[in-house]
């Protein structure tokens, strides 16, 4: 039986996991639509980072005795937004939507860190947050280097 704090941590980690699954879905959909090889290479790197975070989060949830989320849940709608933007409007709006997702992930990690047990807080601080900060910076840079 989990303690209330463990259940709360599992719930929060699963929320982070659903967000990361959504990020993976979103990057995959954008990659299906974007032809520019430089942009594709950067997006593939960012996709790998989010995929690694999904794996780490699944592992942590299991370590705490929980069942990891298997889908993006309501975050999947965001992935569909990016897919639609890249189909209809091109690379710029797709990158803007991806940037918005990066900002949201970063905000989530920072805002909800306190809802975790101390070991999970350290896990997020040392393994997830620095990588999220890196992908956020990379997407910001990529978006600003695209021609208008």
The first-to-last residue Cα distance is 55 Å
Provide the helix percentage: over 70%
Separate helix tally? 5
What would the principal axes of the Cα set say about the shape? Answer: elongated
Report on the structure:
This protein has one domain (4-145): Up-down Bundle (Ferritin), CATH 1.20.1260. The protein contains 5 helices and no strands. It starts with a helix and ends with a helix. With 148 residues, it is an all-alpha fold. Helix 4 packs antiparallel against helix 5.
Ordered list of secondary-structure elements with their pairings:
Layout: H1 4-33, H2 37-63, H3 76-88, H4 91-112, H5 118-145
Helix pairs in contact: 1-2, 1-3, 1-4, 2-5, 3-4, 4-5
Provide the descriptors you would attach to this structure in a database record.
148 residues, Ferritin, mainly alpha, elongated
Provide a quick synopsis of the model:
The chain is mainly α and 148 residues long. It has helices at 4-33, 37-63, 76-88, 91-112, 118-145.
